[in-house]
Amino acid sequence: MRPSRPHLPMRPLWRCRNCGAEWPCQPARLSLLSEYRGNRTSLLIYLSGLMVEARDQLAQLSSQHIPDLTDRFITWARTRN
């Protein structure tokens, strides 16, 4: 059995290097939730920084369409009530 590859972003496209989905893909989200277990605030700060980086890089690739990345980077990581 070969070791699993991490689900990391491929910049500047912001696709997963492993599965090709938009990053953070589902496996990356699960990994981040596990890594930041008990410290959701730090996870949200980390993801916010990455969201700004992704927005800037994606805007350079296509200045015609700059996507709203809030759902992709932040909404899923918020605590559910």
Structure, explained:
With 81 residues, the protein is mainly α. Helices cover 44% and strands 5% of the residues. It has helices at residues 26-35, 40-61, 70-73, and strands spanning 9-10, 15-16. The chain has a two-stranded antiparallel sheet with strand order 1-2. It is flat, with a radius of gyration of 13 Å. The relative contact order is 0.15.
Keywords:
81 residues; mainly alpha
The largest pleated sheet is described as: 2 strands, antiparallel
- Give the CA-CA distance, first to last residue: 39 Å
Order of strands, main sheet, comes to: 1-2
Number of strands: 2
Mean pLDDT: 93
Helices and strands in order:
Blueprint: E1 9-10, E2 15-16, H1 26-35, H2 40-61, H3 70-73
Antiparallel strand pairs: 1-2
Task: Give a brief outline of the structure.
This protein is mainly alpha-helical and 81 residues long. The protein has helices at 26-35, 40-61, 70-73, and strands at 9-10, 15-16.
